[in-house]
Structures are given as structure tokens and as C-alpha cells.
Specification:
- With 364 residues, the protein is α+β, with helices and mostly antiparallel strands.
- The chain has two domains: 1-75 and 119-135, no CATH class; 140-360, Peptidase C65 Otubain, subdomain 2 (3 helical TM bundles of succinate and fumarate reductases, Up-down Bundle), CATH 1.20.1300.
- The chain contains 13 helices and eight strands.
- The chain has helices at residues 54-71, 82-89, 94-105, 140-155, 159-170, 173-179, 184-199, 213-220, 223-243, 245-248, 263-270, 285-289, 298-310, and strands at residues 76-81, 110-114, 125-128, 131-134, 314-318, 329-333, 347-352, 355-360.
- A six-stranded mixed sheet has the order 1-2-8-7-5-6.
- The longest helix is centred in the middle third of the chain and has 21 residues, at 223-243.
- The protein is globular and about 55 Å long.
- The chain starts with 53 loop residues before the first helix and ends with a strand.
- GO terms for molecular function: cysteine-type deubiquitinase activity; ubiquitin binding.
- It is an enzyme of class 3 (hydrolase).
- One of its GO terms (biological process) is protein K48-linked deubiquitination.
């Protein structure tokens, strides 16, 4: 996963809960019982709703409405100007606006939004400890990579060569999956969908048409096909981690408990199944400053594994409001430095806390 914005899901799958009430809610009082207590500066799952200011309640409501609108978007959307994203932050975080301006100055003019697998009918909302949270399903990272991976083949200067190279890598993956214990009958349909999609870039269909970006978008907006490809990429990521335990085992920790996890346990809980996190809500600055390919963050582990097994060059721009002077950190995930893929133009993703989209920049 890429991990979408978090919450808890306990209520009915078809129900929604929105915080409503008067503009001046009843506040908790101070210890002497005379004055309203100061509103909390940080809202967590343990925060009591009655301690929030009217502005904070309004903000929670607005965030909920925004997130509900997000799950109504297609699984993969058409390219949109990054100015649309900027407009969403203009009345909020100035640091995010600065970072978006920085991306625009570097030639990143557009984004293609993706989302996880939940539909609006199954997107569940609940109040935990009187605070509203929402939980996505974590597939946006894999869906973004999958779409950008095939789109890159379509846009390649020599698509036939690019497809041949991709197929030579892809055709070796079923054996790798079997070698770590996946049964062929479990993954063969998912593999065939991705294999056929890659081939269609250069192999005409019955009408004589090869795959183009418009058709690719329609394919990825189809729930069954899109999610089948996501599942296969998750399996490949899991296989790479299992095949190389010496590299990955030191970095496998439970994202909430912080406890070390075994390779098998980690993969079964956080990689194999859809709807699990591909990332935590942070980027490790130490990892960046030391030039390491990944660190203990779950997203870095999975990105490194997927990049390696498919020999993909992936750049992730971290829009997290933390960059100095509005700059954006780019973290690079590359296969072996000696491979041709390591020097090819990268797939570029945009990370915002809890979510990944495709970042569209200048053609290289």
C-alpha cells in the first residue's frame, strides 16, 4: 500500500456518519469548573469531541466530505492540472501550497489521481473515542505504479523494444511466485491479465488497434481488471521480500506496534492481500540524507522490492509540508545500478500523507 487516509471501520457498510451540531458545541470546562478548557492542539483517536472548538469540528466535517468525494472518483482519473490540487490547499496549509508551487517550477504540471478499491457503498465511517476517522484500503500505490508502468511502455520511443524487455522480465515472475509457495492456480489469471495488457501495446486487437492511453484508462477504471493487476503486483512484491530475506528482514516492523516481524508474517499481513498498507504516514529523513534505498518505513520496503523484481525506476515526490523553503524531497527507488532500467526515465509518484497519485512531469 500505498496507504490511504486512515480511520476505523466498525459501522454498517452502507452507513455514513457526519459530525453535525451547533456552531458552539458544549466544551469541557477547566479544572475549577468555571472557564472552558482550551481546545486540544493535536487531534488523535483519544481526543474527546466535546473538547474541540467550533472551527475544529467544522474542519473535521470538511475533511470527511472531501474524503467521501474522493472515494467517488474513478479508480484512475484523467490527467488534471496540478493547479487543481493547489486550490484544495489554498485555504489550509501554506507549506503545502509552497511545495506544489515548487513542483510546478520543476516542470511537474499535472497529476493523475488514483484511489484504492473501496466503492462508496463499502467505504465505512465511524466515530472512535468520539473522533471521526476514515480508512482507505491501501491500494493506491500499487494502482499508480501499474498504470504508470504500462503508460510508460505506450510512450516509449520504441514501444516494441520496451514491450519485449518488459515481457522478458514479466514472463519469469510465475516461477518466482511458485518458488516462494504461491500456487499457480491462485495467480495465473492475474498474471495473464497483466501479460495481455503489456502485449496489447504492440499487438493489435481484432479491430486492428493497439493499446492507447484512452483505452488504458478505461481498463484501469474497470474494477475487476484494475484490482487483478494490483493483486499481482502485491504478490510480486511479497515474492521479492521472501526471496531476499537478508536484505529486507532487518527493516520489517509492525507499523503500529513498532515490533520486529518475520518475513512471512510481514508479507501475509501487509503485502499479500489488497487493502493493506504500502506505507506509513511519514518519510524517513535519515534514509534520504544517507542515500539509502529504503529504511524501516513499510512503504520504502515494498517500493524497493517492487522496483527490484520488475526492474522499475520509481521516483516519489513527498508532498508533506516539511520541505525547507517549500522544496520537495524526491526519493528514488531503483533496481541494480548496472541495469539499463536504473538509468531510464522514472515512473513518478506524488505522495501526500496517506495517499499516492501519479505525478506528470516533462517528457524525457
Amino acid at each position: 500500500m500505498a496507504q490511504d487516509t486512515e480511520s476505523s471501520a466498525q459501522s454498517s457498510p452502507n452507513s455514513s456518519t457526519i459530525i453535525t451540531g451547533p456552531t458552539s458545541p458544549h466544551y469541557a470546562t477547566s479544572s475549577d469548573g468555571t472557564l472552558p478548557a482550551e481546545p486540544p492542539t493535536e487531534i488523535t483517536e483519544d481526543t474527546d469531541l466535546t473538547t474541540l472548538s467550533a472551527a475544529q469540528v467544522y474542519e473535521l466535517n470538511q475533511n470527511l466530505l472531501d474524503l467521501t468525494a474522493d472515494v467517488q472518483r474513478p479508480l484512475v482519473a484523467s490527467v488534471a492540472p496540478i493547479a487543481e490540487l493547489r486550490a484544495e490547499y489554498e485555504n489550509g496549509s501554506h507549506s503545502f501550497v509552497q511545495q506544489i508551487d515548487y513542483l510546478q517550477s520543476q516542470g511537474y504540471s499535472s497529476i493523475r489521481r488514483t484511489r484504492g478499491s473501496l466503492s462508496i457503498s463499502t467505504f465505512r465511517i465511524d466515530i472512535i473515542s468520539k473522533i471521526l476517522f476514515m480508512k482507505g484500503d491501501g491500494d493506491c500505490f500499487y494502482r499508480s505504479v501499474a498504470f504508470a508502468y504500462v503508460e510508460k511502455l505506450i510512450d516509449a520511443p520504441e514501444p516494441a523494444i520496451a514491450v519485449a524487455e518488459a515481457l522478458s522480465i514479466l514472463e519469469a515472475t510465475p516461477k518466482l511466485l511458485e518458488s516462494v509457495g504461491f500456487e499457480n492456480m491462485v495467480f495465473e489469471d492475474f498474471y495473464e491479465m497483466l501479460d495481455e495488457l503489456v502485449r496489447s501495446v504492440v499487438s493489435p486487437d481484432a479491430a486492428g488497434n493497439t493499446l492507447n492511453e484512452e483505452t488504458l484508462l478505461k481498463i484501469f477504471q474497470n474494477f475487476e481488471t484494475s484490482n487483478s493487476i494490483v493483486v499481482y503486483l502485491r504478490m510480486l512484491t511479497s515474492a521479492q521480500i521472501r526471496l531476499d530475506p537478508e536484505t529486507f528482514a532487518p527493516f520489517l516492523f509492525h507499523p503500529e506496534l513498532g515490533e520486529p516481524m518475520g518475513v512471512r508474517e510481514f508479507c501475509e499481513h501487509f503485502v499479500d492481500a489488497t487493502g493493506k498498507e504500502a506505507g506509513m504516514f511519514k518519510v524517513c529523513s535519515s534514509c534520504i540524507s544517507h542515500g539509502l534505498p529504503f529504511c524501516g518505513s513499510i512503504d520504502h520496503v515494498q517500493m524497493t522490492a517492487l522496483s527490484k523484481i520488475l526492474r522499475l525506476n520509481v521516483d516519489v515526490a513527498y508532498l508533506d509540508g516539511r520541505g525547507s523553503n517549500g522544496q520537495v524531497e524526491f526519493v528514488k527507488f531503483q533496481p541494480e545500478e548496472t541495469s539499463e532500467a536504473a538509468t531510464s526515465s522514472p515512473i513518478c509518484l506524488l505522495y501526500r500523507p496517506g495517499h499516492y497519485d501519479i505525478l506528470v512531469g516533462p517528457r524525457r
